[in-house]
Amino acid sequence: MIDLNDGNMHYAFYSGCCFQGADARFFEILGDVFDKVDVKLHIIAEAVCCGAGVIEERSELTSLSINARNMAAAEKMGLPFYTPCSTCFNVISNVQKRLREDTQLFDQVNEILAVDNIEYKGECKITHTLWMLAQDVGLQKLAERVTHPLNGLRVASYYGCHTRNPSDIQNYESSDNPTSLEDILKVLGVDIVDYDTRDECCGYHLTWPNNELSMKMTGSVLQGAQKQDVDLMVTSCPLCFKNLDGVQPKALAATGQDFRLPVLFLPELVGLACGMSPKEMKLDWHTVPVQVRL
């Protein structure tokens, strides 16, 4: 039984597939970091893969049904739905919007779910790391928990595509010029550095159909940031992190430039600013060594 009156904010936690394998370390990191800001995560035991838009290409109804099932599980828990994965956020938010707009589809999906005695009510609140920290936790509380401000650290912020587009699914900030990531970074004390490839796609989802193009896109984003002499990049998207950090050495072949630019996943930087050590944030798992002053 979850005590909703214990002074913490509680969320139904949908991790997505990207937190499998080597990136499973982010489970522990998220829990430890969110403890600092009074957030508790509760894994959705019945969760299934969102399909990442691939299932929808074959069957929209299947995609709608499996993701309504995911949201129904959070509704049953009585908690808002939190996912750190931007692609999962995008897919599931689009399903929510589609079912809100089409009552016939809404009923059809619930007929499918009824086979397993599941009902999707359409009451699920979906959020992402960005808005949880900026809106739910709030910048004031976050500032109160910062014990080691990262003053003087030159940081390039990177959103990625799937929390920003399409603009009508997140209903929080401008899709063309979002500010939530920068708002959080200001609280952490860093110097935010603008760069001309901030809004470009990193090419993560092109890795399989067109790896060469994906590497060029990754290299372009990194190149734009590096031109501004930043200490590191920070992204709120774990898939963008996997690309910008994990395949950075391969981007060398596509661009001819050896970047060696550290890239951090946003909760890692929040943890450091809240007094947690590089070891606790498991920075030694990064492909590109994080050897900047922290």
Helix-strand blueprint:
Layout: E1 9-13, H1 25-35, E2 39-43, H2 54-58, H3 60-77, E3 81-82, H4 86-101, H5 103-113, E4 126-127, H6 129-145, E5 154-158, H7 180-188, E6 191-192, H8 211-226, E7 232-235, H9 238-246, H10 248-255, E8 263-265, H11 266-273
Parallel strand pairs: 1-2, 1-3, 3-4, 5-6, 5-7, 7-8
Characterization of the model:
The chain is α/β, with parallel strands linked by helices. The protein has 2 domains: 9-127, Glutathione S-transferase Yfyf (Class Pi), Chain A, domain 2, CATH 1.20.1050.140; 146-285, Rossmann fold (3-Layer(aba) Sandwich), CATH 3.40.50. The protein has 11 helices and 8 strands. The strands form 2 sheets. It has a 4-stranded parallel beta sheet. It has a 4-stranded parallel beta sheet with strand order 6-5-7-8, sandwiched between helices. Strand 1, helix 1 and strand 2 (39-43) form a beta-alpha-beta unit. The N and C termini lie far apart (39 Å).
